[in-house]
Amino acid sequence: MSAIDGLPPLRDVIARHDLQAKKQLGQNFLLDLNLTAKIARAAGDLTGCDVIEVGPGPGGLTRGLLAEGARHVLAIEKDARAMSALAEISDFYPGRLHVINGDALEIDPLAYLTPPIRIVANLPYNVGTELLIRWLTPKEWPPFWQSLTLMFQKEVAERIVAKPGSKAYGRLALLAQWRSDAKIVMTLPPEAFVPAPKIHSAVVHLTALAEPRYPANPAVLNRVVAAGFNQRRKMLRASLKGLHPAIEDLLVAANIPPTARAEEIELERFCALARALAAAPR
Ligand code: SAM
Asked: ipTM, 2 decimals?
């Protein structure tokens, strides 16, 4: 029996349910339940919250979330092989774990949940980034979630929290930091996973702000940032030329030197430029 709950150790679960990791599903499992409980704690106070967990696999993190007091966990897992192992966890925590066998990119979890909602996941990195971008760009703000606690490749985590002037600074940093607080709360070596991936990983915790940090129209801001970073070595007066015939004047109005490059510019200035662009006659 494990220390955090009365359920069997994850190695036994994996052996009994024949859950050997499959590469094509990006499966690198966390088997240390003290570590999964620590990740659950990094998500904040879970008591009184519904939690969406994406990619529970054999359920290590799921058990951490439930042991840390989550009111209700909705777990979405693509691999049908994991269902019997996850059913043992829902039997152990009656009424608190609901498992859906499906693709998280195609399922709308909202129908099953009551706010406040937190999202926690250790996902394959490509799926994780795609979901992060969706969660950061909902139709309405504030979003349906209060926080996101997500495992990424360390290099991607660094892009999410990057500040101006660094190589990692770009669209992902601006998108994440415009309407959330984003922090790296844990870094993990390859050996924390079975099988061990080649790279280090990190957990990023994002908390949704009630309001964007600076006002801007999301579509215009996105256009400015995309154009600026698509040609990140160019001066902004060149990389943004296609956005408006008087782009140099708009840059000056937003307090941005037209000869600066995107990676030197702070979020506040990008928002000012998006506002100037939205207000400029064509
Ligand atoms: N959460 C478990 C842990 O920490 O040990 C498993 C992590 S493993 C890196 C990623 C999990 O996501 C696998 O169980 C995999 O089957 C699942 N997965 C992959 N793509 C998915 C998708 N599109 N939707 C839902 N689950 C997915």
From this structure: 0.99
